[in-house]
């Protein structure tokens, strides 16, 4: 038994393994923006990268369906017939 232990005693200790950094997620980015108190107008994800656009959303970027106004009226409250 001692013979095997002595045979490996001359080796240098192994290098610690490096951890690979995790890819940023949209949820993490939005959580950090909320923590900083910044309004997020939009977000894009490309090639594992998350890009946030800050500011108030403009009318052009807000997705509205043309049927919303038809069905619910201008105040967007459901009307019963």
Give an overview in words.
Helix content is 30%, strand content 16%. It has 81 residues and is an alpha+beta fold. It has a domain of 38 residues. Strands 1-2 form a two-stranded antiparallel ribbon. The model has no long low-confidence stretch (mean pLDDT 76).
Biggest sheet features: 2 strands, antiparallel
Low-confidence stretches: none
Distance between the termini: 90 Å
Radius of gyration: 28 Å
- Strand tally is 2
Q: Count helical runs.
A: 3
Work out the helicity level: 25-40%
> What integer is the average pLDDT?
76
Strand order of the largest sheet: 1-2
Shape label: elongated
Give the H and E element order.
HHEEH
Structural class: alpha+beta
Strand content: 15-25%
Protein topology:
Elements: H1 2-7, H2 26-36, E1 40-46, E2 49-54, H3 66-72
Antiparallel strand pairs: 1-2
Short description:
It is elongated, with a radius of gyration of 28 Å.
Please supply descriptive tags for the structure shown above.
alpha+beta; 81 residues; two-stranded antiparallel ribbon; single chain; 16% strand
